[in-house]
Amino acid sequence: MTSSATEEPSGFHRALDLFEEAASAVPADAWGNPSPCSEWTARDVLGHVIGIQYEIVALTRGDVPPRVGDAPGRFAAGPVPLASWTAARAACTAALTPGALDRLVPFAGFGELPLRTLLDTYVLELLVHTWDLAQAAAVPVRLDPDLVHHALATAQVIAPGLRRDGLVAAPLPAPRGTGELPRLLAFLGRPTG
């Protein structure tokens, strides 16, 4: 879950690329479709991930981050939700300077971590929400197996605390003989069949 101080958080950026690829494929009339996230639409999933970008920007500055789980669709307002995504990702990318990546930030249950280490944990959220968005919009998605492996390992460390806080559903039985993505999704309480 950690990376050296000289490395860029490349897994985070690759996960962002995968999310953007899925978001770009969402048809205009699918943003209101329900997603696997209880009570969230495709727009809400996009808005939540947009909110995460602004959460990261706030952490780089030492500001209080926005609440990204409350009414997440507000972050993807307007007739072209993808425009909100583009602006948020650009703001986040600009904020991730070397100094910002080294900044110590709070991480519930783990104390303070360098922001670059926290970004490694965000790979989990980005991949799962990429899958959520693809399911909501019925668009194909292929997630990087290396990132899925990383996300599964991360989930096993942080999911118990997230479950305690009501942020992750109870695990479902993992399908037999399947790869790591179905196991990850089942671990996070998402039915895959």
UniProtKB/TrEMBL annotation:
**UniProt cross-references to Gene3D superfamilies, sorted A to Z:** dinb family like domain
State any single GO MF term: metal ion binding
Top-level lineage group: Bacteria
Q: Which InterPro entries match?
A: CHP03086, DinB/YfiT-like, Maleyloyr_isom, MDMPI_metal-binding
Domain named Mycothiol-dependent maleylpyruvate isomerase metal-binding is located at: 13-134
| Pfam families, alphabetized | MDMPI_N
What name has this protein been given in UniProt? Uncharacterized protein (TIGR03086 family)
Q: Give the species this sequence originates from.
A: Actinocorallia herbida
Lineage per the UniProt record: Bacteria, Bacillati, Actinomycetota, Actinomycetes, Streptosporangiales
